[in-house]
Structure formats: structure tokens, C-alpha cells
Amino acid sequence: MLISLDKNSGTPLFEQIYDIIRQQIIQGELENDEKLPSKRQLQRDLSISQTTIENAYGRLLDEDLIYSREKSGYFVTSLEQLEPGSRQAATGIVRKKKKHYALPPGTIDTTIVQSDVLKHIAREAFSDDELLNLGDESGERKLKEQIRHYLHINRGVICATDQIFIGPSTEFLLEQALYLMDHPAMTIEDPGYPVIKKVLDRLGSKVDFAPVREDGVDTKTVQALSNPVVHVTPSHQFPSGVVLSLQKRIQLLNHAGAAGTYIIEDDYDSEFRYTGRPLPSLQGLDQNDRTIYMSTFSKVLYPSLRLSCMVLPKRLAELYYAKQLSCNVPRQMQLIVARFMDRGYLERHINRVRKIYRTKMETVTAWLREEYEDVEIYGDHTGMHFMLRVPGTDLRIPAEKHSLVHGSRYSQTEGLRDTVLIGIGEKSAEDIMDILAAFLGDVSP
Ligand SMILES: Cc1ncc(COP(=O)(O)O)c(C=O)c1O
């Protein structure tokens, strides 16, 4: 038996011996019931200690790769041979390259997050050894209580703490909600948040589209399709930014109540309303417990936090507990956010940064309206992006050249060819204006 050891490799010698013999057994180089060299012989051949060999043989014995026979020594266990396969070294894996956008919609200004306060609270959470064991699978109660209070005051959501569920993302929570509803066919907005369709395609669910008008999703289409679930973004339709009118909210709720269907209300980006008061949530208006409400901390705190929540109707909430689903968010992170909210930091943070984003939004859009009379702007009353339209102009090539997000990314039809989506979160007003000036310089209406 050939064993060559590398005393400088950093891998303990017993582990090297174990690895070599193991490989030889698995690959059939050592035959079933073949006798292994005695410990003394190996000690002599390799000039190593007896303990090293005992450790290596001990591990092989533990894994049943060898067996010992009293006074005779060690032998290779009879194993079926592993068939050779086509396993390749895991190098050169082909990955789709993530496109880098100059003004993406999902990023924030990281300099205005109170990282000193977060760090302080994080230190407390990570010093609490109680948190090292698993907590409530559906999410930490302290966080749920804070969210219940926050959503009630700010979004008019009416629910019990036990109806709130935590998750790392809206995508994750959507999958859980769809699982609880037995993967229903769904009507979704067009244009809309592409992740919704991605999830439905992945699950093999049927998808229908309802067009978005100036006052929100076309409720006649939703009613005519009457799918078991409709997904809407009423506060700030993604990506158009339009607000679902009160009339249409009532139509959606009445239809869901009468037909026994569900509405998923994704309240993304509703916290940063720059003009007037936002309409309260659909969930708060619902008289029939047909609304699933979803929200995320990605904008009010920061996107990499990966913390979102949903409020389930009573029947689905009970099903969640019965099926023992899990939130999959670390307890420490949940409690950091719970304490941040409990001590009033979140409320103050939102009020402070809303002013910063409002100023930025107003500076950029006022400049555009002043300098470019051919462009149209919409969706700038709320959130951290707006739509820029150059009517009748196909913007695909200039958008590609300037790495801007083209509207067709969100559309199922030929629509939005003359539109780009401008995220204002990350860059300064000056940088945004520089990028847009260069882009519009290349656009001929
Ligand atoms: C409608 C909508 N919902 C949710 C999200 C993001 O959710 P999360 O932060 O939970 O991943 C986005 C991001 O663009 C969105 O457009």
C-alpha cells in the first residue's frame, strides 16, 4: 500500500493517512477483506508515532470502512463499489451576470442610516445568550408587537399580534402565503414587480394579468378573471407609482368578500409619501378578512437587513401554525429591529429621511420639468423612484447605453418602451441630474 505524507501541509498526519486509505477503499484499489499493514509496520515505514496510526485506523473503524479481527489485524470492509460518474470539479460554474444599473430603484442612501444606534443595539442583542437557542418559529413576539402597533398607527392595519408573520423577504413570504392557499391561480398587475411572476412561474401556478390605469389596477379585469387571488400594490403601484383609488379599493374588497377570493396587498414603499396623507391600507378597510398584507423594512431601514412581514387573515394564520412554517430570520436581527422601534428610533428615522428624500425628489423632478419640456414624470409623490417618459420615443438603446432601468423590464406588453425608471435612493441629486442630462442628451424625441 502506497502512503506518502506531506509533513508541511498543515493537515494532521492521521487525517492524511485516513484520507489516503479511505480513497483507496472507495475506489476499489484496496479489495474487500484485504489485510491492512499492521500499526507497527506502518509506524516503521512512515517514521511516525503509533498514536497517529491509531487515530487514523480509529476513524476508519468508526466509519465502518475497516474492521478488526482479534490477533489478526485490520481488514477492508466488504463494500459495493461506487460506480464511476461524471462529477466534475466545481469550477467555471456559469452564472448569469447581474446587471449593474446607474440609478436602480431598490437602493438607499446608506449615509443616513443611524448605524451608530444600530451598532449599540446590536451589541446588546449579541450579548444576550438567551437568543442563541431557537425562538418562536413564526417570528419574535416582541417584534410582532412593535409591527402591530406601527402598522395600526401608520397604515390603519387591524390585526392581532398572532396574525403577523416575519420573513427574510416579500418573495419568501409570498411563497409561504401561496403554499397556505394551495398554490392558487393569481391575477397580477401589468406592469408590475417581476418577482411576483417569477415566484408563480417557479411554482407552476397559473398567472393572469390586469392592466394598470391612472387610478390603479383595472378592477373590471380582476372581477372578470375572478382568480382565487389578486396581487396589488395599492399605495404606490410598482413601478408606475399610481395610487389605487378609494372607489377601486372598495370594488376589490366587495368582490373578494362576495366571491370568497383573497387580495394580496403589497404595501412596498408606502412610508415615503411626499404630498398629502397616504390612503390607509386595504387591509384596514376589509370587512371580510380577505386581505393578506405585506410590507418590508428594506426602505425604512436598509435592504440588506432582509426583514419583511405579512399579516394573514385568521384562517390562514391558523393554517401557518398548524403547518409549522418558519420565519428563517435570525432572532438577534429581529430583536435589534424590535428595540429600534420600541425606543422610538424608527419613527424618528422615517420622519428624518422622508425630508431628505423629498428634497432630493423635488430637486431632480423640478429640474427635469424646467429643462426638458418633452419629458413626463409620474409616480414622484411617493417612494424612492419615479418614472420618466419621453412620449413616442423608444428608450431601449439610450437606457442600455446609460445603464438605466428600462420600463419594458416590468411590462408584459409592448408598453413602457418610452419610459425609464429612476431610483433616487442611493445617489445625490447632483449625480442623478448629471446622469439624466447625459441620458437625455442622447435621446431624440
Ligand atoms: C412591489 C414590491 N414589493 C416588495 C419589494 C421588495 O421586497 P423585500 O424588501 O421584502 O425583498 C419590491 C422591490 O422592488 C417591490 O417592488
From TrEMBL:
Q: What is this protein called?
A: PLP-dependent aminotransferase family protein
Instruction: Please tell me the species this chain comes from.
Output: Candidatus Salinicoccus stercoripullorum
The alphabetical list of record keywords is: Aminotransferase, DNA-binding, Pyridoxal phosphate, Transcription, Transcription regulation, Transferase
Q: What InterPro entries does its record include?
A: HTH_trans_reg/aminotransferase (IPR051446), PyrdxlP-dep_Trfase (IPR015424), PyrdxlP-dep_Trfase_major (IPR015421), Tscrpt_reg_HTH_GntR (IPR000524), WH-like_DNA-bd_sf (IPR036388), WH_DNA-bd_sf (IPR036390)
Q: Could you state a single Gene Ontology molecular function term?
A: DNA-binding transcription factor activity
Classify the source by domain of life: Bacteria
Please list the residue ranges annotated as the HTH gntR-type domain: 11-79
Query: Which Pfam families does the record cross-reference, listed alphabetically?
Result: GntR
Q: Does the keyword DNA-binding apply?
A: yes
Q: Which SMART domains match?
A: HTH_GNTR
The record's family statement is: In the C-terminal section; belongs to the class-I pyridoxal-phosphate-dependent aminotransferase family.
Q: Does the keyword Lyase apply?
A: no
Q: Which co-factors does it depend on?
A: pyridoxal 5'-phosphate
TM helices/strands, residue ranges: none
Lineage summary: Bacteria, Bacillati, Bacillota, Bacilli, Bacillales
